[in-house]
Amino acid sequence: MTAPQSFSFSVMATDGRARRGEISMPRGTVRTPAFMPVGTAGTVKAMYPDQVRALGSDIILGNTYHLMLRPGAERVARLGGLHEFARWPWPILTDSGGFQVMSLSKLRKITEQGVTFRSHIDGVPYELTPERSIEIQGLLDSDIQMQLDECTALPAKRDAIEKAMELSLRWAERCKAAFGKQPGKAMFGIVQGGDVAALRERSAIALRELDLKGYAVGGLAVGEPQEVMLDMLDVSCALLPEDRPRYLMGVGTPDDILKSVARGIDMFDCVMPTRAGRHGLAYTRRGKINLKNARHADDPRPLDEESDCTASRDFSRAYLHHLVKSGEVLGAMLLTWNNLAYYQSLMADIRAAIEAGRFVDRAAAITEGWERGDLPPL
Amino acid sequence: MTAPQSFSFSVMATDGRARRGEISMPRGTVRTPAFMPVGTAGTVKAMYPDQVRALGSDIILGNTYHLMLRPGAERVARLGGLHEFARWPWPILTDSGGFQVMSLSKLRKITEQGVTFRSHIDGVPYELTPERSIEIQGLLDSDIQMQLDECTALPAKRDAIEKAMELSLRWAERCKAAFGKQPGKAMFGIVQGGDVAALRERSAIALRELDLKGYAVGGLAVGEPQEVMLDMLDVSCALLPEDRPRYLMGVGTPDDILKSVARGIDMFDCVMPTRAGRHGLAYTRRGKINLKNARHADDPRPLDEESDCTASRDFSRAYLHHLVKSGEVLGAMLLTWNNLAYYQSLMADIRAAIEAGRFVDRAAAITEGWERGDLPPL
């Protein structure tokens, strides 16, 4: 089969508002709904790239902010791009850098032109404009590039939310112009507007007019209750074109994912499975398990005896507890592996359920499993 | 093929004083000269057990001191022993705990009876006698157990060295009695005597009379020059029985290994490849490479383009440099993997050379490779 030359999206099945689709691009196909493991600085932490792939990851995310500071976008380009650098020949999505400039950098200042800031690593000053963000993402050779936007932490005043949303719209236009025509790649716009329905509507409509290849919903899971997030998804998705992929940025828990798929979201990324894995927490079909808890110290049972994943099935809770308590690297390696395996198996489960027209029932059964909770202690 | 019921050692080929042998026991065969990766607290740090095995490791080492403190020997026994706990069904050698009591614990006190100390983790008091050390190693279900000994850091006064050596001999007898008859397992004695040839001789002769299944040379690589270590090996190996395996404890660099094999040593363990891997250092056929060095930042070449190991062959030095500089777990994972792969390929190389009667030439060629040094910068 010849690799496609252009970026395209097709919805193969729907079940309610949930969609089963495929994003096709030269480096590979992304089965949606998709979860994208976060490869912050060119590595999905504590995982070998082949392992990430073997779990069914069709695409990973790279963070422009981290990569522009270290090792530097021009360096990555000289080394053949991020795929070659990180030994991940399959699709990569990069964020714009904007979100982490806001959360990590020092002395940041936003103007119409862009954002200036100092590196949190060494204090070196940088400027990130919409054009530079797209340039960097191009140097990384990213397959799906995100517009630069301003994301407002919630709660926030309506004025501040509106101002950031309007600025983000103007930046979307500049990013679109900077991106130009690249048939095999895509630039996605980002719906902003905080927790204000009218602003979300304004943002979605304006972005839709830009006729972008895909749309993200940003500025959610930033402090608001889950119901507010879901309401904003309802508002946003209703106005986004049916024939373009929809990406909910930075979300979320398995429950967030189920509920967002039900509202028409196709793509997710989140640090939760990888970060939790480095902090002794396991995501399973029986909910979240804290391996630091002493109840596991003498428990010979694995996290999930029915899992296909070695980390979940072949190592005892007692051993995982020991590794976590001892600060052993293998603890982070095994729990991250378990967590990504669980997330990817959840996505496969969701995709199969949509195809079979049983999404609501399946989501209820999955939720029931979490609510039933972990195995009783021995 | 049925697993053997008893512990045995046979020398299949010799080349000068270098020996190519096999230690056979119910859990597997150890091809000697052998390098045993150190699995301190029930994990070879930053490696999955299957990876360690796939590199050609026939046996790993577990540290009694660490395991007795956490998770505790009785707990490991309840969980089915160390092999089951750590998912390593092949042979395991455990040290006696004595060496790390001396280097890590607090308020330690040695008497004829044994050693009392407080845990470096939580200050809990423990007593380790020769009998308790063997009991713990039995609870761990260790295949090769080491006698409790007192190891003197060098330089030291002759009186202190002699006293520790004589105490170690008396403890060897008590360990032998405590170990009793276990046909499928072995208890090794440890030659002590610091850098004093006459004391090494006295120790080796006395241990030989105990008719143990194997003998270690301990108390070396503890501060003395390499020539002194090699002299002590000459003295010790000459007096140890030809038909028992000889294990040089805690050694060493690849060069130490080559020179010790030439003197009749069959087994090695050392934290160097694993520890160095967590500190940005790579062992290769071109010597030791410091990945933190800026010369690697733009170098697309792998550590060793001819290696069979993914970590050595498929990832660029630029990427490894980036991972190490960024403190990414994957850096430790890849460099530890590379280092253990190099150590095990060195051992395979040594074994093949002894079999072919070309050990001296091969050792010279390997040494020449290290001395030629790393690739010139691009």
List keywords for this structure.
15 helices; 378 residues; globular; 16 strands; alpha/beta; eight-stranded parallel beta sheet; 19% strand; homodimer; three-stranded antiparallel beta sheet
SSE arrangement:
2 copies of one chain form a homodimer.
Chain A: E1 8-15, E2 18-25, E3 28-32, E4 34-37, H1 49-54, E5 60-62, H2 64-69, H3 73-78, H4 82-85, E6 92-94, H5 98-104, E7 106-110, E8 115-118, E9 125-128, H6 130-139, E10 144-146, H7 158-179, E11 186-191, H8 197-209, E12 214-217, H9 226-239, E13 246-248, H10 254-261, E14 267-270, H11 272-277, E15 281-284, E16 287-290, H12 310-313, H13 317-325, H14 329-355, H15 359-372
Parallel strand pairs in A: 4-14, 5-6, 6-10, 10-11, 11-12, 12-13, 13-14
Antiparallel strand pairs in A: 1-2, 2-3, 7-8, 8-9, 15-16
Helix pairs in contact in A: 6-7, 7-8, 8-9, 13-14, 14-15
* Number of E-state strands of chain A: 16
**Spatial extent as radius of gyration of chain A:** 20 Å
Quaternary structure annotation: homodimer
Q: Helix/strand-derived class of chain A?
A: alpha/beta
Shape, principal axes of CA atoms of chain A? globular
Percent range for β-strand residues of chain A: 15-25%
Mean pLDDT of chain A equals: 97
Alpha-carbon distance between the termini of chain A? 52 Å
| Secondary structure tally, helices of chain A | 15
Low-pLDDT residue intervals, each spanning 5 or more residues of chain A: none
